[in-house]
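worker-03 picked up job from queue 'complexes'. Input manifest follows; two sequence lines, order preserved.
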Amino acid sequence: MAGVYETWLQSPGLGPNWMHDPVGNAYWGAVGKMLDDQLARMKSGLRSRYPEDAAAMGMADALEQSGQDRMLPRGGTYPGAADETLTAWAARLQDAWNRWEKAGMALGLLLELKAQGFTTGSTGASIVNHIGRRYYLNSSDELVITTPCAECINRKDKTGVVPSSKLTGFTLSAYDQFYSCFFLLFLTNEPYLSNAAGSTGKAILNQTVNRWRQSGARYCGAVVVPVSAGSWVLGWPADTEVGAVDLVIGDNGARFIDTE
Amino acid sequence: MSYTLAELLTPRNRPTLEAMLMAVLQETTIEGMPGVRFPVTDWQPGGFERTHMKMIATGLLDREDTIRMITAGGFLDLASTLEDADGNPIEGWMELLASKWYLLNRYEAGYSRQLLTLTCTSGPGPYTRAAGEIIAMSPVTGNRYTNEAEVTIPDGGSVTAIFKAEGPGIAWADSAETIVVLVTPGLPGVTVTNAPSVAGVPANYISGSGSLAVTSTTVTTTPRTVKIAFTAAGRVSDSSARFTCTVYQGQAVTTTGPFVASASFSQGDLTIGFTDGATGTQSFDEGDEWIVGVPGTPLLQAGSDKEQLSALAQRCRDRWPSLSLVPTGNRFAGMVRECQSASKIGITKVTTRASTTVAGVENVYIAGPTATATPTQVAAVQAYVDERSSDVDMANVIAAEDAPISLGGTVKCRRGTIDTIKANANLAWQTYIAGLDLGGEPPDGLVKLLALENILNDAGAYNATGLTLNGSAADVVLTGLQCASVAAWPNGLPSDALTWHEVA
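worker-03 finished. Artifact:
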């Protein structure tokens, strides 16, 4: 189909009749094709900045730039996860206003972890904080908050005293009354999370957490506890008592992923 | 037809356009004349039709560059690095993007403003001159300043007035007592200088009703910044207000106290007076901080260059974390960058970490281009961040750990080129250090020995041997919070630290 310039330059109303004999039309048509090509490029260049249009044109590299601008890289970077489709990525970029509004909140961090390809849901990525609250996403990406933790024998209150009525939660640092720590808990095996040098999964996890965590909230690391494989660690599952089950602490794939 | 971004960002040149035009013409069949193509048999350079194609292709060339700019103009990193064919920056696209998409305007270059004291001997005065009629100059830099408002110089006395630099920019940073030449004729008996004062105007950010003033009269010989931080609210009259005193001097930071706020407090040769506000009001609030710089600089406002486009792009990006009501570490980093762009305080590197010792506090590590932050810079950034923090969040601004990089090695140059090569190498090395983030080059946190070698070669050295960083022929590895800095003279700059030889 002829473009606007090709059509216009060949229109009989433009210029004298000799311009529009068969040879003349062929000539002007060729020039018009070049102008139309440039027009198409200009339009594509303009549209490339709008994520939805960039996705529609298949311009992954334009979305890459938008992702850098909005600090929302393409999802699915976690090893083993499929690349986020261009359409889904574009929708997330368009939703940057709402996404970033949730930065610093448990919901914002969990949604970003999901976008990057980490497992979510009740056995996937959970945020567990010092006071024993656990946050995870349900299948509708809504935040579920539970308080599953038992009493902690050495957790101090803000005055530095272990109260007679024990506090629930965890002691996540040497400062037993530290109240702004959290860790990530995976109750399923995340095979690409390890402390091996150059671990891409760990790097993506730590980068995502650092970008989306609340200021002042100290990230203590991630604990992977594949419970279906009979794995457990001291403190999780929360109702497990030492000596009550015939398992070895840290066995069956349980591991801690550090922050560095 | 779909394109990649790379295709749209790469203008096609004239021969390409010319070839495309010819290809279309050569392949086009004439309508109504099956099998007949465009009736030209001579497509050779210089021929009529080829020249015609060349002419049209030349006309289309400008549009190719327009395509590139339209495309790049929609993305921060691309718009901020747009250049014309001669390598000159094209700044309008980034400014447009920042203004229309991010509601941020680029900071213009600022004018330096200085306090100048004009003194007249007894007899020839007084003189009254309208704004702009008195011109003073530094013989060191040649920088000239004019009075902002009408000035009357009393006979046998002196007056201090605000003078504005003739031009904007960072180069107008004349130090105290260097603007001493009166360029304006017709003022016999008048001398001029930009003398330091006893202290800068005390600044605070959480106001009670009380006030603080420097009452000593002698200009100190020990430049320092003094921070008075109230640890207990109250008044001077009932001795209820208490404060600590922190002194920032060089890289040393010393805190003393708490002290009871009384009418007068001495810190070395500096005396500070506290004055209560109205009866029945709280003069000083807990957490209230006052900052005093001594001696007071005559420089009221430092000149500044136009904001770098890369800094503007980063400020645009910083808008996203600022959308959240819950602050993130990025948001504090963004505040620091905003402070730098607005006030040009010399902080170009920032990173944040949650405190490991104080719950709920984010540590903000800062540094300048080639050295870690000075105590004065730390105090200024802390004040800026505090003023913008919510009721419950807090950032603790810290100078990044300094990691001086000393150089060693031998460089050979062609005769007559050594001074130029030294100057080029110094500039390039400083630029390299300035371009390193806190923690060095990612991902391994390196300061690279190869970078020094490349810099010397690019500067024009004949060869460079035995190069070392910090005494070792290997890269320097930094931790995540260390700031690579140019080591103190004579070890840090290539011109002084390396051994130079001229060869024929």
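worker-03 released lock.
Strands of chain A lie at 125-129, 134-137, 143-146, 181-186, 218-224, 255-257.
Chain A touches chain B through 60 residues (CB under 8 Å).
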